[in-house]
Write a structure and sequence with these properties.
The chain is mostly helical. The protein has eleven helices and no strands.
């Protein structure tokens, strides 16, 4: 089992032992809000045409540089475990800025190939399972009915990662499982479950309470479910946390995340104010 990974600086030495992509809500971009069609009624739009929250394109060049560097390190030593999962991580992160399905599919397949091979030769390395799941999500984002099978493999891989190192990527496995269960269609179409979503999202906050993404996702969930009491509690908690977090998660590698977090923080405050005004 890999040691816990909670350092604040993505490029620190400790980051070589843990996942550095800050996924959280970004996983919702992948497939979790994608409607899975029934056999009788295909979706009116292909998944990529459905509006989804995205990271700012101004950070695409940084993601491309990371991918190039990750490829070079892996090609220099294809037996390196850290180099393998770091390439899977970089493929997922670069995929967040893909301009079309073709580019996203190519990046996802590259990440899936390297991570799947890693899970076979080093099955106890949680990062291999974690980034396999994330790249499966990117691939599913480009699919129609085929996405259901990918979602099941994603769930299985994410559970493996959670069992090995629940604090990986600041409780990333529980955060991502929570989003999966929250946003996927329910039975019999897919594996969505409100109760499972609640369990995993609360666990992510419990495991990594100082990571803004975990609390943002929870706030967005309470808004979605119109649960006012826990919503107000999480708004207060995140408001108190952010000044500390800005000092903890610093540097160029966190710029895209803060850009996303700040935007979402403003949005949830506005939405919450409207919801909380209603009787």
């Amino acid at each position: 089992m890999q040691p816990d990974n909670t350092s604040a600086t993505p490029n620190s030495a400790a980051s070589n032992r843990g996942a550095r992509a800050r996924l959280g809500g970004f996983l919702a971009v992948v497939l979790l809000t994608q409607p899975i069609a029934t056999l009788a009624a295909p979706p009116p739009k292909k998944p990529a045409d459905i509006p989804m929250p995205t990271l700012s394109a101004k950070f695409a060049d940084t993601a491309q540089i990371k991918l190039i560097n990750a490829r070079k390190k892996f090609q220099a030593d294809t037996n390196s475990v850290p180099a393998a999962w770091a390439l899977g991580q970089a493929c997922f992160w670069r995929g967040e800025f893909a301009v079309d399905d073709e580019e996203r599919t190519a990046l996802a397949n590259e990440g899936i190939a390297v991570c799947r091979a890693l899970t076979m030769r080093a099955p106890t390395v949680p990062e291999g399972h974690y980034y396999l799941a994330m790249n499966l999500g990117q691939l599913a984002r480009t699919k129609w009915l085929e996405a259901l099978g990918l979602v099941k493999e994603l769930e299985r891989s994410m559970k493996f990662a959670a069992g090995m190192n629940p604090r990986l990527d600041h409780a990333g496995p529980d955060r991502c499982l929570g989003l999966l269960y929250r946003d996927a269609p329910g039975w019999p179409i897919s594996l969505g479950s409100k109760s499972k979503a609640r369990t995993h999202l609360l666990r992510a906050v419990e495991l990594a309470p100082d990571f803004p993404e975990n609390r943002l996702v929870l706030i967005e969930t309470w808004l979605m479910w119109k649960e006012k009491k826990p919503l107000q509690r999480e708004l207060d908690a995140l408001g108190a946390l952010l000044p500390k977090a800005r000092k903890q998660f610093t540097g160029e590698d966190w710029a895209a995340h803060w850009d996303d977090w700040d935007r979402r923080w403003l949005e949830v405050q506005a939405r919450a104010a409207e919801l909380l005004r209603k009787k």
